[in-house]
Amino acid sequence: MRSDVLIVGAGPTGLVLALWLTKLGIKVRIIDKAAEAGTSSRALAVQARTLELYRQLDLTDAVIESGHRVQAANLWVKGGKAAQLRLATIGTDLTPYPFVHVFPQDQHERLLAQRLEALGVKVERATELLGFSDDGTRVLARLRGADGQEQDCEASYIAGCDGARSLVRETIGAEFPGGTYRQVFYVADVEASGPALDGQLHIDLDEADFLAVFPLANQGSARLIGTVRDERADRAETLRFEDVSDRAMEQMKVDVAKVNWFSTYRVHHRVAKHFRKGRAFLLGDAAHIHSPAGGQGMNTGIGDAINLAWKFASVLHGCAPEALLDSYEAERIGFARRLVHTTDRVFTFVTAEGRVADLVRTRIAPLLLPTMAHFQAAREYVFRTVSQITLNYREGPLSQGSAGHLRGGDRLPWAVAGDEDNFASLALMDWQVHVYGKAPQDVIDCCKSLGLSLQVFDWQPEYAEAGLLENVVYLLRPDTYVALVDPTGTWETLARYFSSRGLKPLQRA
């Protein structure tokens, strides 16, 4: 019963981690204490950056075909639309996926589990982690299976993808500071009609409770996500849809014909003090939880998984020293803290009570937001932030060099010149080099000696427009982020990057 990595929790974070590792030849075991996969979900949005990264798992097309593209977001005040943000026109030059994609978490998990099972790995359900120990060379975990029998499981590492009440986090003693929003959230899947059922996202900024209407793939279907903050919040467990439906029907003119699912919950905003202790790691909700503002939670957990997966694989295949795993927390914890702070501020704004808050939200914001939407820089800032394409690891230990606006740790800018898409090669789950222009022979030879894939693009104006510079050497990590930017274009800098860190490509394993 030995594996390289024991993954605890089969939500999107754990499943993506298992898929990545299995694709890279790492033996995983993934368990979940739930007897069945979830049939309902709160997470809906699959952001552009996640769709970009999913190309490595050949998942992007399947996710897009099964979900719904949200091309615009609308803000409502006093029963009418006050502003619109057209996502498709904002992100067209920034990403192949200039939209928010709605793909409910339960369907998402089924797709991931099916892909994993096709690779020979099945989620072990009704299997619970009872505890584990780390002796410095291995993890020994105690599990209880579906038959009630207990067994020991040995692994090189354990990955806690086990949610907000993580036993892995509790076992390593990682503090989880933060708080709980006093508002009660509700979620309702409905069949309905009205102006807010037009396939776009609609958010109400009125004086009462927060409410958002998310379109689903089936026409006339939507998910309502809202809050209650008066005396109803004290009886969250007994709330029914009838207790919260007036707001949607009156303010946003949603005519509900049928309620297929309704649930209430409370939301925390917390970040663990550490994402790693020894051979145990925390990912997703086990490491950070925050308000649903911006649809960031599930995407951030998936980002954790992809960041950690190639590092696990590199160490386990002998392509990197154990110290590489320290970069996981260094790169992800700062982003998680900023995200919790940002989503907390947004959520506080849309739910704040009092005359001043209502005035800002219902009078000032409707005047300012349309004006801001006219400015390209403001529109791009919003899209880059929500889509997570602005996320970078510039301050991380693996990032080096700069040229123009691009620095080590950044996401590679997307550019299409003629029929050539510079993201096409990013399906490769390994280190690679990009040169836009001409690659010197010594760089070509160096790539061959190191076992690096080299992509050379004939120089075109489109690359300059995207922020790329001619003849610069861009070294990309296995998760497609830029590791090294070398404006000198010399082989010595490239060779030194690997030798100084004890790294080598996974294909050299």
TrEMBL record:
GO terms for molecular function: monooxygenase activity. Keywords: FAD, Flavoprotein, Monooxygenase, Oxidoreductase. Its cofactor is FAD. The keyword Oxidoreductase applies. The keyword Flavoprotein applies. Pfam families: FAD_binding_3. Residues 3-342 form the FAD-binding domain. InterPro entries: FAD-bd, FAD/NAD-bd_sf, RIFMO-like. This is FAD-dependent monooxygenase.
